[in-house]
Specification:
The structure is a single chain. The chain is an all-alpha fold and 279 residues long. It has three domains: 113 residues, no CATH class; 86 residues, Alpha Horseshoe (Serine Threonine Protein Phosphatase 5, Tetratricopeptide repeat), CATH 1.25.40.10; 55 residues, no CATH class. It has 13 helices and no strands. Helix 4 packs antiparallel against helix 5. The longest helix is centred in the N-terminal third of the chain and has 24 residues. The protein is flat, with a radius of gyration of 21 Å.
């Protein structure tokens, strides 16, 4: 607590006056000044990673309260929490009432990707491939997708395969496309069989600019259904959802509370993948 109070004091006394002074002289715009202030605040308050606010944001998302989720994610994101930055960026992309514009979504996705958060690197690369919120730039798309793919992100591998199959931003190379498609398949991506035959690769078309961004943040109902189907596939059939969750939590050694959480969903996916029953 003492560290947080000291950080807040330093931010108020040292950072804000500098930003305001610079703005008054016209050296930078108010928007850039705010961004600078945010970055300095992250440094000043680095002792608090915003984990509590991040979890509060996750809870609000499951309750379909996007306004509260965005507020909590933003609080954690300003403290440098890369997961919160990622979630806030996605929320900005699908609910324009919680953010000013696409620029804010890009700002937070970039911040998370630059902290080496694999999902953010993959999505940011995809955005450059689509031209979503940024100028379409296949070279930058490849850079971020490569970063994610090297950490075994199956979707990034799939997108790289598409790039080489279509020649979008890279020299068309079916052998390289097959390499990435096979890696994506090996890492769990549900790749259609035709993508693994070189004679079919010429049929793959490049993404259209400004293609609609898929709503990757799922609604509470979707998450519940995913958990229920996953538990059923793992043999927890005939039980109430909460009872099944508790039994699974106990088996895999995570806190037994019967609640749906991000960790629960990830552990279910891991178990399904181990048993060859899903991604």
């Amino acid at each position: 607590m003492r560290q947080i109070l000291i950080s807040g004091f330093l931010f108020t006394c040292c950072v804000l006056p500098v930003v305001w002074a610079i703005q008054l002289t016209g050296w930078i715009t108010p928007e850039k000044g705010q961004a600078y202030a945010r970055s300095r605040y992250v440094v000043a308050a680095k002792g608090d990673k915003g984990d509590a606010a991040y979890e509060s944001g996750n809870k609000a998302r499951l309750e379909l309260d996007n306004a509260t989720a965005a507020a909590q994610y933003r609080k954690a994101a300003l403290l440098g929490n890369k997961k919160a930055q990622f979630r806030l960026a996605l929320l900005c992309a699908i609910d324009h009432e919680v953010c000013k514009d696409k620029a804010e979504a890009v700002q937070w996705m970039r911040a998370s990707a630059e902290q080496d958060y694999t999902p953010a690197q993959r999505v940011f690369g995809h955005w450059y491939l689509l031209g979503y919120g940024v100028e379409k730039n296949p070279a930058k798309a490849k850079k971020w997708l490569i970063s994610a793919a090297h950490k075994e992100d199956d979707i990034a591998m799939y997108l790289l395969g598409r790039m080489y199959a279509t020649g979008e931003g890279v020299e068309k190379n079916y052998d390289e496309a097959l390499k990435w498609f096979r890696l994506a398949k090996a890492n769990g991506y549900p790749l259609p069989a035709e993508y693994l035959r070189i004679n079919n690769l010429a049929r793959i078309k490049p993404y259209k600019s400004q293609q609609s961004v898929k709503k990757v943040i799922k609604s509470r109902e979707d998450v519940i259904k995913e958990v229920q189907s996953g538990l059923a596939a793992l043999g927890y059939m005939g039980k109430k959802t909460k009872t099944a969750i508790k039994a699974f939590q106990q088996k895999v050694g995570i806190p037994v509370d019967g609640k749906i959480s991000e960790e629960l969903v990830l552990r279910i996916k891991e178990e399904l993948k181990k048993q060859g029953k899903g991604r």
